[in-house]
Amino acid sequence: MTLLVKLARRGAALAGLSAGLALAPGRTLAQVAAPATIRLSPDDLERGQYGPQHNFYFLPPGRTAEADYQSAGFFGAKLRPYLQGSAPALAELDRYKRQKTLYLVDKAVLLSAAGLYASQVFRDQDAVYFNPTQRVAAGAAVLSLVATLFINRHTNEYLKQAVDNYNSNPPRRTGASWLRPAGVGVGATNGRPVLALSWQL
């Protein structure tokens, strides 16, 4: 009778321990299913040189649903927190921000030149289309249009490269996150309840 009780207790302990460890693979599979990379939207992946300058959309690490796409913001500021710890990615994001700033300055010059030109047309009683001030304004507008080609040439590529740099070598998790168990279970040993923990290495 005593032998049967001991065997039953050992069986219960093993069953509890295996149940606890069985939780670990489930957690591990969930972690594998959710990639630890940043993914750009399919449309944004197709952007090349001279592409449109609207905001990029991305999936943060661990997110897979269509509804989880986030805007990176005009200067990529909303993407920056996810790139912390990856110096190459942040360097590319800084280049992207520089190009977007130049893009805004260029547009401001173009609009100012167009406004100055238009203000000179009916300055006097007769319409004037090529006085000295208008020539300066027209020259500034042409320079702005040419500058746009150089500014927009690589702007989108900088943000895409920032994401590629992060995904190629994502920063390792720091802090005490490694202390969290990947699986938890309850068993019994010698008639006493036992908590079974497992960690993913």
Task: Give a structural overview.
The protein is mainly alpha-helical and 201 residues long. It is 56% helix and 10% strand. The protein is built from five helices and five strands; from the N terminus they run αβαββαααββ. The strands form two sheets. A three-stranded antiparallel sheet has the order 1-2-3. Strands 4-5 form a two-stranded antiparallel sheet. Strand 4 (183-189) and strand 5 form a beta hairpin. The model is unreliable at 17-33 and 174-178 (pLDDT under 50).
SSE layout and pairing:
Blueprint lengths: L1 H32 L5 E2 L1 H4 L11 E3 L10 E2 L8 H4 L3 H35 L10 H37 L14 E7 L2 E7 L3
Antiparallel strand pairs: 1-2, 2-3, 4-5
Helix pairs in contact: 4-5
Over all CA atoms, what is the radius of gyration? 30 Å
Measured distance between first and last alpha carbons: 42 Å
Care to count the β-strands? 5
Query: What would you call the shape?
Result: rod-shaped
| Strand order, largest beta sheet | 1-2-3
Query: How much of the residues is beta strand, in percent?
Result: 5-15%
The average pLDDT score comes to 80
What is the string of SSEs from the N terminus onward?
Answer: HEHEEHHHEE
Low-confidence blocks of residues = 17-33, 174-178
- Figure out the total of helices: 5
Give a short account of the largest sheet.
3 strands, antiparallel
Structural class: mainly alpha
